[in-house]
């Protein structure tokens, strides 16, 4: 069947979840208090080949250079006008990992905050990196590595990737450590990454089976308190054994993710829909179910089974009629809409209407 050229074909990516397998506890939970800390700083990148900030539009770059020169003992005459083309003002961001000690190095990301055309070939001057408490936790400095490529010739230019962002491997040195005790007193606290009562119960059962009854207790669907040795060496060994325990997580809630910009649809499992009918513009969706009875043979000691099966019918102007095999999965609805050339907006409106009517038995999230 040939569709009208005015109909936009929707490409939907559908993932059907595989059977749930056992996972390591370290992949399901974290230890309370053991976390990364974000760092940020403001600095200057010098040595650019004429691709720095335009000082007439970024006065803060000039102010930063004047302040830096003053700290280095260079006093400029009043009223001096600096025309800087090889300097760019940047923000420096990094992540301080747990248990990082002074002297260790961490990677940093340098991003232009002015109108610099490129940071390629630049050098970041010494920049203090501060945490949320305004304390300095690391000092950054080094030569930038910019992954993009820029070229211009004869009035035309081409650019690949971002030239205004670069990275420095091991570009910052940790100056202050963050105290992260492994629990308090006789207990440590585990926090599941996804709140789920089934998973929490299975984690408690697995820990108690390995270390003894009463070692772990769940406070709710996310927090689990675990009795651990007080000696730090024994506690580390205890955590090493515990984080490698395998647990089968509970099945997550049925969820449908809809990207309104690209029209992608992602399902975390086989989402089922109830019988319903939806009319949207020139599209009409009808989902009807009918009982199917399976009668066993006489004297076979079988049971009569009644199953609900559905037939999906979707009509669109100038697109004819599309019939799908009997199924109540949302996957069938999406395929049928794709076949008739529904737009992302059509699919989004239909899914929202089905959810509001109670026909979509899943959580609908639009991103």
UniProtKB/TrEMBL annotation:
Subcellular location(s) of the protein: Bacterial flagellum basal body
GO cellular component term, pick one: bacterial-type flagellum basal body, distal rod, P ring
UniProt key word Signal: yes
Record-linked InterPro entries: Flag_FlgI (IPR001782)
Single GO molecular function: structural molecule activity
Alphabetized UniProt keyword annotations: Bacterial flagellum, Cell projection, Cilium, Flagellum, Signal
Lineage top rank: taxon: Bacteria
Biological process, per Gene Ontology: bacterial-type flagellum-dependent cell motility
HAMAP family: FlgI
Subunit composition and interactions: The basal body constitutes a major portion of the flagellar organelle and consists of four rings (L,P,S, and M) mounted on a central rod.
NCBIfam families per UniProt: PRK05303.1
Free-text function comment from the UniProt entry: Assembles around the rod to form the L-ring and probably protects the motor/basal body from shearing forces during rotation.
Family: Belongs to the FlgI family.
Name of the protein in question: Flagellar P-ring protein
Record gene name: flgI
């Amino acid at each position: 069947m040939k569709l009208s050229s005015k109909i936009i074909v929707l490409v939907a990516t559908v993932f059907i979840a595989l059977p749930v397998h056992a996972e390591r506890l370290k992949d399901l939970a974290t230890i309370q208090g053991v976390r990364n800390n974000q760092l940020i700083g403001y600095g200057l990148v010098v040595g650019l080949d004429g691709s720095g900030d335009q000082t007439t539009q970024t006065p803060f770059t000039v102010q930063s250079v004047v302040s830096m020169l003053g700290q280095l003992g260079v006093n400029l005459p009043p009223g001096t006008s600096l025309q800087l083309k090889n300097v760019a003002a940047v923000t420096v961001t990094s992540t301080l990992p747990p248990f990082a000690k002074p002297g260790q190095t961490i990677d940093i990301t340098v991003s232009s905050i002015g109108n610099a055309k490129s940071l390629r070939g630049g050098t970041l001057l010494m920049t203090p990196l501060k945490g949320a408490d305004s304390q300095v936790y690391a000092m950054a400095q080094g030569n930038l590595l910019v992954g993009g490529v820029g070229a211009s010739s004869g009035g035309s230019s081409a650019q690949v990737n971002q030239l205004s962002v670069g990275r420095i491997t091991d570009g910052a040195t940790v100056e202050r450590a963050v105290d992260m005790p492994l629990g308090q007193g006789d207990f440590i606290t585990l926090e599941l990454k996804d709140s789920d009562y089934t998973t929490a119960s299975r984690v408690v059962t697995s820990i108690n089976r390995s270390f003894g009854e009463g070692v772990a207790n769940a406070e709710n669907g996310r927090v689990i308190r675990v009795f651990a040795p007080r000696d730090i060496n024994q506690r580390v060994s205890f955590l090493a054994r515990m984080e490698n325990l395998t647990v089968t997580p509970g099945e997550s809630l049925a969820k449908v993710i809809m990207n309104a910009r690209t029209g992608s649809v992602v399902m975390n499992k086989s989402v089922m829909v109830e019988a319903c009918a939806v009319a949207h513009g020139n599209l009409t969706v009808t989902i009807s179910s009918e009982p199917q009875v399976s009668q066993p043979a006489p004297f076979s000691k079988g049971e009569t089974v009644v199953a609900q099966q559905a037939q999906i019918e979707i009509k669109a102007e100038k697109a004819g009629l599309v019939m799908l095999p009997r199924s109540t999965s949302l996957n069938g609805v999406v395929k049928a809409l794709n076949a008739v050339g529904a737009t992302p907006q059509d699919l989004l409106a239909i899914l929202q209407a089905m959810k509001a009517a109670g026909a979509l038995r899943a959580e609908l999230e639009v991103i």
